[in-house]
């Protein structure tokens, strides 16, 4: 069955290094990050080259910790015509943080990116999609900090993240305090009795390529856009191997050697653009200054 070739999908990169991933936290403490081999710049540049060759634009959710150390990398991303959004500061799971700590880190990371680029940062994605029912309060803080859109909610059941039963398509959500945000949930493939993650990352490396293409294509065949994500470390088979439990090792290291090749194939099979453009195409996010989440509450129906 043919894919709807007119639909533009959101192409996204979570800019973080291999040692910052939650799956490897058992082997690397946050305090040790500065002593680890730093590979995110070279890997992100590698992805920028792939995107240049394919002629596509993407949204780069950039970790504040990385941006602080590599401001020129953030400028290169923007100079290549890509959108820069926030991935928080320290890549800690939000439901393990207090609201005060999350608010401080959110303000800090947003400020770092805005100081580097001199433009407002209005988009956000949580570390490991850790806005769940347990940490839904984070959405209010995002709106209060001036974010207008988010892509943190994964409508699946998972041991580390997920909000099962929430909408699968881009939509406007109302926070508990009555703010509005545009939300682009991570894409899923509906099976009988089960909602399967299909949006990228480890799933893209684990599933056979034909299955990822079919699952993502099924979303376009419903006249809906999907969101695809990847991390710079996923095109880096030469990264150091850390001593972690077998499940974490499998999730992180599986098929790193063929991921870049698969990415190039995917870019040829679908149309891609930035997250903001897709949300505007869908009528979920307004253009110009009339954006959602402006800091004032709206009435809750």
Record keyword descriptors for this entry.
301 residues, alpha/beta, TIM Barrel, 4-stranded mixed beta sheet, 11 strands
Give a summary of the structure in a few sentences:
With 301 residues, the chain is of the alpha/beta class. It has helices at 40-54, 64-69, 71-79, 99-117, 137-144, 201-206, 209-220, 246-253, 256-269, 275-281; strands spanning 8-15, 59-62, 83-86, 123-124, 149-150, 171-174, 180-183, 188-191, 194-197, 227-230, 271-273.
Describe the fold and architecture.
With 301 residues, the chain is of the alpha/beta class. It has one domain: TIM Barrel (Alpha-Beta Barrel). 35% of the residues lie in helices and 14% in strands. It contains ten helices and eleven strands. The strands form three sheets. Strands 1, 2, 3, 10 and 11 form a five-stranded parallel sheet that branches. α1 runs parallel beside α9 and α4 packs parallel to α5. The longest helix has 19 residues. The radius of gyration is 18 Å and the shape is globular. The protein starts with 7 loop residues before the first strand and ends in a 20-residue tail after the last helix. The C terminus is likely disordered.
């Amino acid at each position: 069955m043919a894919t709807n070739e007119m639909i533009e999908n959101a192409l996204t990169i979570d800019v973080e290094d291999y040692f910052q991933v939650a799956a490897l936290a058992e082997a690397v403490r946050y305090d040790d990050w500065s002593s680890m081999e730093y590979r995110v710049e070279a890997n992100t540049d590698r992805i920028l080259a792939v995107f240049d060759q394919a002629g596509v634009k993407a949204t780069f959710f950039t970790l504040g910790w990385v941006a602080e150390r590599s401001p020129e990398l953030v400028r290169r991303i923007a100079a290549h015509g890509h959108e820069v959004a926030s991935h928080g500061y320290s890549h800690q799971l939000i439901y393990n943080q207090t609201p005060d700590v999350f608010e401080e880190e959110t303000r800090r990371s947003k400020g770092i990116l805005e100081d580097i680029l001199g433009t407002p940062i209005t988009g956000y994605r949580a570390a490991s999609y850790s806005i769940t029912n347990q940490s839904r309060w984070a959405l209010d803080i995002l709106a209060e900090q001036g974010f207008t859109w988010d892509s943190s909610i994964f409508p699946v059941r998972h041991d580390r993240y997920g909000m099962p039963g929430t909408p699968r398509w881009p939509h406007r959500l109302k926070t508990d305090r009555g703010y509005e945000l545009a939300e682009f949930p991570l894409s899923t493939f509906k099976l009988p009795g089960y909602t399967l993650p299909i949006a990228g990352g480890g799933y893209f490396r684990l599933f056979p390529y034909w299955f990822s293409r079919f699952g993502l294509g099924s979303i376009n065949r419903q006249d809906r856009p999907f969101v695809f994500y990847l991390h710079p470390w996923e095109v880096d088979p030469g990264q150091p191997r850390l001593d972690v439990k077998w499940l974490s090792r499998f999730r992180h290291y599986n098929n790193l050697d063929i991921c870049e090749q698969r990415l190039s194939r995917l870019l040829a099979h679908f149309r891609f653009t930035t997250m903001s453009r897709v949300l505007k195409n869908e009528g979920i996010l307004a253009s110009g200054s009339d954006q959602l989440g402006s800091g004032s509450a709206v009435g809750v129906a």
